[in-house]
Design brief:
The protein is of the alpha/beta class. It has a single domain, classed as Protein-Tyrosine Phosphatase, Chain A, CATH 3.90.190. The chain is 39% helix and 11% strand. A five-stranded mixed sheet has the order 1-2-5-3-4, with helices on one face. α1 packs across α2, α4 crosses α5 and α4 runs parallel beside α6. It is globular and about 45 Å long.
């Protein structure tokens, strides 16, 4: 892959999906417990054009892949960005302002011409929550965002085992009721 050229139909694995083709992808943890597998998986994301990794996991929840990401990208002549904005598993952000911060990071990275990959562990709960709020920010009503998220999710292999994203009713309600505080959003 040449930096800046993205195939908006390529996915790194069957448990990732495009939210905005060529701009925003979402899914599961891109690393792995075994170093060789982590490196191979990360190469797949880089080859799919991902240049910005937004990690929603809590520090210590999973093995960090950050070092492998930078080593693999350097070998490919790429310079990715990594940022962690944790949300506890099965939960929602601690404040509306924190969700605004997450959404601002995504929007600013896209505006800077990055291809963003947002993930948690399984790509179901926290990831679905952020994607749903992103869709609301960009013009959908909460119910419409949940329907669109469901459509995205049904394209993912693991939806056969985990039929809904986001994972909890609290997360779905958060999307349904999402309204940004006026002072928090930066355009």
């Amino acid at each position: 892959m040449v930096f800046g050229r993205v195939n908006p139909y390529k996915l790194p694995n069957p448990n990732a999906y495009w939210v905005k083709p060529g701009k925003l992808m979402a899914g599961e943890y891109p690393g792995h417990q075994r170093s060789e597998k982590a490196r191979a998986r990360l190469r797949e994301y880089l080859e799919a054009g991902v240049t910005f990794f937004l990690d929603l996991t809590v520090p210590g929840e999973l093995r960090s892949y950050e070092r492998f990401l930078f080593e693999e990208s350097q070998a490919m002549g790429l310079t990715p960005f990594y940022q962690r904005l944790p949300i506890p598993d099965g939960s929602v952000p601690r404040s509306p302002e924190y969700m605004v911060q997450i959404l601002n990071v995504i929007d600013h990275a896209i505006a800077d011409r990055h291809v963003v990959y947002v993930h948690c562990w399984g790509g179901i709960g926290r990831t679905g929550l952020v994607v749903g709020c992103f869709l609301v920010r960009h013009g959908m009503k909460g119910e419409q965002a949940l329907r669109e998220l469901s459509r995205f999710w049904q394209s993912v292999e693991k939806s056969a085992i985990f039929p809904e994203s986001p994972e909890t009713q609290q997360q779905r309600d958060y999307i349904l009721n999402w309204r940004e505080p006026l002072k928090g959003r930066r355009g």
